[in-house]
Design goal:
The protein has 116 residues and is an all-beta fold. Helices cover 0% and strands 54% of the residues. It has strands at 2-6, 9-12, 17-24, 32-38, 45-50, 56-58, 66-71, 76-81, 90-98, 101-103, 110-115. The strands form two sheets. Strands 2, 4, 5, 6, 9, 10 and 11 form a seven-stranded mixed β-sheet that branches. β7 and β8 (76-81) form a beta hairpin. The radius of gyration is 13 Å and the shape is globular. The termini are far apart.
């Protein structure tokens, strides 16, 4: 399985970014997909996840600002991020979630930096 995340960058507070994650080597539509992030010196944490049928969950700190979506025909999961805050600065990773356990398959992640 390969997961390739891209779309990060440097943005001012209040700005927006759209992350994408292209998956290969699996039957994408069968799996829950998730976005996680890891800030320097902190644990990797869940940001949002989406079921194979499109049911979403966003952690409280991003709810109303971030939106996870997926396109099963393109084997791609997205994270639309708006009203970004400096505390959103982190490396963002996508994962396949199997039995509530995220599998990252060594994906590189994409860096998001929000300046104040």
């Amino acid at each position: 399985v390969q997961l390739q995340a891209f779309g990060g960058g440097l943005v001012q507070a209040g700005g927006s970014l759209r992350l994408s994650c292209a998956a290969s080597g699996l039957t994408f539509g069968n799996y829950v997909m998730g976005w996680y992030r890891q800030a320097p010196g902190k644990e990797r944490e869940l940001v949002a996840r989406i079921s194979s049928g499109g049911i979403t969950y966003h952690v409280p700190s991003v709810k109303g600002r971030f939106t996870v979506s997926r396109d099963n025909a393109k084997n791609t999961v997205y994270l639309q991020m708006t009203s970004l805050k400096p505390e959103d600065t982190a490396a963002y990773y996508c994962a396949v979630i199997v039995g509530l356990v995220p599998k990252f398959y060594g994906g590189q992640g994409t860096q998001v930096t929000v300046s104040s």
